Amino acid sequence: MTVNGTVFWIATAMAVAASAQQPAADPPNIVFIYIDDLGYSDVGFMGSKIYQTPHVDRLAAEGMVFTSGYAAAPNCAPSRASLMSGQYAPRHGIYTVGRSERGPSQLRRLIPTPNQTVLSPNIVTLAEALQSAGYVTGHFGKWHLGAPPNAGPSQQGFDVNIGGNQTGSPAGGHFSPYRNPQLPNPPQREYLTDRLTDEAIRFMRQHANDSFFVYLSHYAVHTPIQAKSEITKKYAAAASQHGFNAEYAAMIDSVDQSVGRIMSALKELDIDQQTMLVFYSDNGGHGKITSLAPLRGCKGTLYEGGIRVPLAIRWPGTIPPGTRSDTPVCGIDFYPTFLELTGAEPPKQPLDGVSLVPLLRGEKPQATPPVMQRDALFWHFPAYLQGKNYPGTRDPDFRTRPCSVIRQGNWKLIQYFEDDTVELFDLSKDVGENNECSAERPDIANRLRLRLVDWQQSIGAPIPDQPNPEFAGQQ
């Protein structure tokens, strides 16, 4: 029998339910540090020689680095929706930021799938699941999945919400006044990254004797590019010599200081040994501000530069320090991972991810039975995302046109809906996706395409097929 997505989901859901009944002996606190638009190689532990991230690098050195860590989408809102729901985008309907018909209409061949901008209240979020397991939950920073008081963090499982609303970037910038109703009365010229860190540490102090989930979702390093002048000066000479953005480097520096302060607070409160610390980005970096080399593309593309991101997880006493995993993992995997760790009851909704706990505990991916109960990862983007002359894109007018993507093993296939063409890459030899090889390996291309179509059908992924009457080219 062909193993389709439906059968796979049933098997995965059964595994999640079974594991959730057997939590870790001492369920950990969870601090999830989510950086906005941080590129794959923008930190030292992923090879940066430009940006200085000693605290983030120490977190990575004391835990596990995932060299094939993926965001669930190429831009902000859908990645966050998938993290909170544990679902691929076709289930929650958030595919992009704002409208799906972005870019010049005369250049869009198809009518894209309508986009949702609010996470449905019918979805049981990760925070709600952890609340049900007795965790105190705190949200600090960017939400981007709906506006309070109807669809903000407090309506989706967070006991505390500082700074979270419908906005995708800081309305008033990274310095106060922020023009953010969820960040009242800031001191003059306060820096947003510092304020959110202060609030997260205050929450941890208040709940040091409780089980807690901290979702520190920084607005940094999203545009506008604004940093403290004294830190920017530190990078000015090197930036001038090597051609990088000193202010962007200073924003990363402030993020790194935030991570260092969180780690120091955990140590001071004597709870670092019982706290899992996750460092992760919601999508690739801004292609006109930072380099995504050696990857192709950037935020907004489905090439590796848009979806492969830095990921490190630290849990002293459980995750061996200095470990690395090449196993492809994704944002949808955190929901089942945290269910297993905490013993939280699985929701009735389908979960598309798999638990990372076996990997974190050092089990080999090739074990029998397999550690990772899936054969592929998927992305679905039935929308348009404009972008003039972004690096590494397929054409000069769009970062992404409607498409679906599968990664299976080291092979990656992109299916474009406008002309029904595909691109095939062997990531083991070509992580920069420079050599499209579907003509050389039609057997692989056909196999992946069939698996991708099988997944689309099993999950109900909408495929745009209606011609756009305003398209100026030939249909």
Please give a structural write-up.
The chain has 475 residues and is an alpha/beta fold. 28% of the residues lie in helices and 15% in strands. The protein has an 8-stranded mixed beta sheet with strand order 5-4-6-1-7-8-2-9, with helices on both faces. The longest helix has 23 residues. The N terminus is likely disordered.
Short description:
This protein is of the alpha/beta class and 475 residues long. Helix content is 28%, strand content 15%.
Number of helices: 12
Beginning-to-end CA distance, first to last residue: 39 Å
Uncertain spans = 1-21
Taking Cα atoms only, what radius of gyration do you get, to the nearest Å?
Answer: 21 Å
* Main structural class: alpha/beta
Kindly report the average pLDDT value: 93
Helix content: 25-40%
Strand content: 5-15%
Task: List the strand order in the largest sheet.
Answer: 5-4-6-1-7-8-2-9
Protein topology:
Blueprint: H1 5-20, E1 29-35, H2 54-61, E2 64-66, E3 69-70, H3 76-85, H4 89-92, H5 126-132, E4 136-141, E5 160-162, H6 192-206, E6 212-217, H7 229-242, H8 246-268, E7 275-281, H9 304-307, E8 311-314, E9 323-325, E10 329-330, H10 334-342, H11 357-360, E11 377-381, E12 385-386, E13 398-400, E14 403-408, E15 411-416, E16 422-426, H12 442-459
Parallel strand pairs: 1-6, 1-7, 2-9, 3-10, 4-5, 4-6
Antiparallel strand pairs: 2-8, 7-8, 11-14, 12-13, 14-15, 15-16
Helix pairs in contact: 1-10, 2-8, 6-8, 7-8
Q: What are its keywords?
A:
disordered N terminus; 4-stranded antiparallel beta sheet; alpha/beta; single chain
